[in-house]
Amino acid sequence: MENYPGLRNDGRKKWNSAFILPEHRKRIAEFYLSQNDIPQPYLSSDELEELNYAVHQYLEERCMIELAYYRQKAVHRIKGTLIECDLIKRILTLMDLNEGMNYFPMRDILSIEKH
């Protein structure tokens, strides 16, 4: 008897259990990617007051800062200089090291530190 792929030596078919439908493969990939997701952290009123104080202080000083923010189920960090704080729209404007303008909703900001 010749050797055929998928056949055992006794002629019975060997089942391959690695068959997965494309829909299943997609859901499995999404599951593994979602394992790294972080739920959005919420700041206490004390932390919000400290953040507000830091924003006003760093706006006056125009110094280099590091901003931690939440976006797309992850915490990110960026370095730059605070340019503006729009209290009506609740958006912070930051000029990064490449002199690009970045806009952050205040609800997404987690911390601001002098760098």
How would you characterize the overall build of this protein?
This protein is α+β, with helices and mostly antiparallel strands and 115 residues long. It has a domain at 45-114: SH3 type barrels, CATH 2.30.30.520. It has two helices and five strands. It has helices at 22-34, 45-61; strands spanning 64-71, 74-86, 91-96, 101-105, 109-114. A five-stranded antiparallel beta sheet has the order 4-3-2-1-5, covered by helices on one side. β1 (64-71) and β2 form a beta hairpin. The longest helix is centred in the middle third of the chain and has 17 residues, at 45-61. It is elongated. The termini are far apart. The relative contact order is 0.14.
Q: SSE order, as H and E?
A: HHEEEEE
CATH class value of the domain at 45-114? Mainly Beta
Our estimate of the beta-strand percent is 25-35%
Low-confidence stretches: none
Computed CA radius of gyration, to the nearest angstrom: 26 Å
Q: What is the total tally of β strands?
A: 5
- In helices, the fraction of residues equals 25-40%
> What would you call the shape?
elongated
If strands are numbered along the chain, what order do they take across the biggest sheet?
A: 4-3-2-1-5
Protein name: YolD-like family protein
Organism: Paenibacillus terrae
Pfam family, one: YolD
InterPro entries: YolD
